[in-house]
């Protein structure tokens, strides 16, 4: 009996490693258990067991890097012309983490009611794995791996479809597009709408305006060249992107002067102080000049990208000599599109989307419209983990509304799921050999240094999981798709 039991345990462990949990793939028993507990708490026991069973039955296995040449590659799914009148659309605005997490929830644990399908409207041709953009802005060679194709996100057009187009307007019945697409024209009707348009950040942490893979790769290479030519780099803003970018530059180019200016007295204000302390210590040991509690005075019209050495002043009167300035400040929610439908659901003070605990937008006229991810006005930290959690709540409530209405129930008679606060968790990679993290275990938050984070190091910051999320494992044959 011992042999079969060990074999079953090994198969279960392998399956757990391949399940796309919210964080990086776990590599030991402690982390695996933590991930399972996290999944059970966020989506319930039954869906988690279903997810594990799906992988035991032979679902896709997660690859940590490029497989050997000749390894099996999933072929591009063929589009099927279904006819809009035959299916009811659940339209998702945005194909980043929130949209992909919604598709994964449906794929693994929450099948849609009969005749319903997901339609994701996304202007980018590929999913942008922006978690690795700071490193790819410095180190060349893996840029293509950070743009995963949407081709196999859905197994068939009956299950769902990704439309590459820009949504220009939302009405109570349909979404209008900037171009005509097969099967729809310029109008996509919907029964339910999930708004996950995210937020815009400065380059290179976010490439909002680069719609194709080629454009994104080009911008990352341009930053590599600019940083390579510079001698004195000024990074403005000590959020996650600013911290990682400063570390990547200093580790890869130890001879360069790197200065990081942050307006707050500490980094990562919404996390435990231990995360700030660890981050500050790593940057100090790398040799990054750190200026906290001060602001850079940005000249009218911004900095000129001409490579010339200038002296930049701070509000506290400090002088910084620099020949390259990179802004890593600010986040602008992409809520303007939703305001075409519901101006009342936009917070006039910060432009984030107001939502109910059910993640329905705060406009009683539209109980069939939900929002989640970086664009919503919630205290949850704006990370991929929050987007995953929001997606699970939103799509579950859509299914509850569909099923309840089909039973003849009124909306106020249908009990919807309410979101739970998302604990602030994060992994930060300070170059190839150092990192910090804040994690949750049984609801307790703790910070960890390189000793834990190094288990999840990879040259591409685990970009292969984005390809798995999208249904096309990363390989030598697929990397150019």
TrEMBL record:
GO terms for cellular component: cytoplasm. It comes from the Eukaryota. GO terms for molecular function: electron-transferring-flavoprotein dehydrogenase activity; flavin adenine dinucleotide binding. Residues 89-393 form the FAD/NAD(P)-binding domain. InterPro entries: FAD/NAD-bd_sf (IPR036188), FAD/NAD-binding_dom (IPR023753). Pfam families: Pyr_redox_2. This is FAD/NAD(P)-binding domain-containing protein. It comes from Spizellomyces punctatus (strain DAOM BR117).
């Amino acid at each position: 009996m011992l042999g079969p039991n060990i074999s079953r345990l090994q198969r279960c462990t392998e399956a757990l490693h391949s399940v796309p949990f919210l964080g990086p793939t776990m590599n030991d028993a402690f982390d695996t258990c933590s991930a399972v507990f996290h999944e059970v708490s966020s989506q319930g026991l039954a869906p988690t067991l279903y997810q594990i069973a799906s992988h035991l039955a032979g679902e896709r296995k997660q690859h940590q890097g490029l497989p050997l040449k000749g390894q099996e590659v999933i072929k591009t799914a063929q589009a099927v012309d279904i006819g809009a009148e035959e299916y009811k659309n659940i339209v998702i605005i945005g194909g980043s983490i929130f949209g992909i997490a919604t598709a994964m929830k449906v794929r693994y644990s929450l099948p849609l009611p009969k005749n319903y399908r997901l339609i994701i409207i996304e202007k980018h041709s590929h999913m942008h794995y922006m978690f690795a953009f700071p490193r790819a802005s410095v180190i060349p060679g893996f840029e293509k791996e950070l743009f995963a194709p949407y081709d196999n996100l859905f197994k068939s057009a009956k299950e769902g479809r990704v439309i590459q187009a820009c949504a220009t307007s939302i009405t109570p019945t349909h979404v209008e597009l900037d171009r005509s697409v097969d099967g729809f024209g310029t109008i996509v009707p919907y029964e339910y709408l999930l708004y996950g348009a995210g937020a815009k950040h400065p380059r290179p942490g976010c490439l909002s305006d680069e719609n194709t893979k080629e454009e994104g790769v080009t911008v990352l290479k341009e930053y590599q060249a600019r940083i390579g030519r510079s001698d004195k780099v000024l990074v403005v803003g000590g959020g996650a992107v600013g911290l990682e970018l400063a570390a990547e530059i200093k580790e890869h180019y130890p001879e360069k002067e790197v200065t990081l200016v942050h307006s707050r007295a500490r980094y990562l204000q919404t996390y435990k102080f231990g995360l700030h302390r660890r981050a500050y210590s790593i940057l100090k040991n790398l040799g990054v000049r750190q200026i906290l509690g001060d602001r850079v005075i940005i000249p009218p019209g911004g900095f000129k990208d001409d490579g010339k050495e200038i002296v930049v002043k701070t509000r506290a009167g400090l002088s910084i000599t620099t020949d390259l300035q990179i802004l890593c400040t600010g986040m602008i929610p992409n809520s303007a599109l939703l305001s075409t439908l519901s101006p009342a659901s936009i917070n006039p003070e910060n432009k984030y989307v107001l939502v109910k605990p059910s993640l329905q937008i705060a406009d009683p006229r539209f109980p069939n419209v939900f929002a989640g991810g970086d664009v919503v006005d919630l205290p949850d930290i704006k990370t991929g983990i929050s987007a995953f959690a929001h997606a699970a709540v939103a799509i579950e409530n859509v299914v509850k509304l569909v099923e309840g209405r089909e039973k003849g129930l009124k909306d106020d008679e249908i009990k919807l799921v309410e979101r739970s606060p998302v604990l602030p968790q994060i992994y930060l990679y300070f170059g190839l050999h150092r990192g910090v993290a804040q994690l949750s275990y049984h609801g307790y938050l703790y910070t960890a240094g390189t000793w834990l984070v190094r288990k999840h190091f990879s040259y591409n910051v685990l970009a292969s999981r984005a390809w798995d999320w999208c249904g096309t494992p990363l390989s030598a044959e697929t990397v150019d798709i």
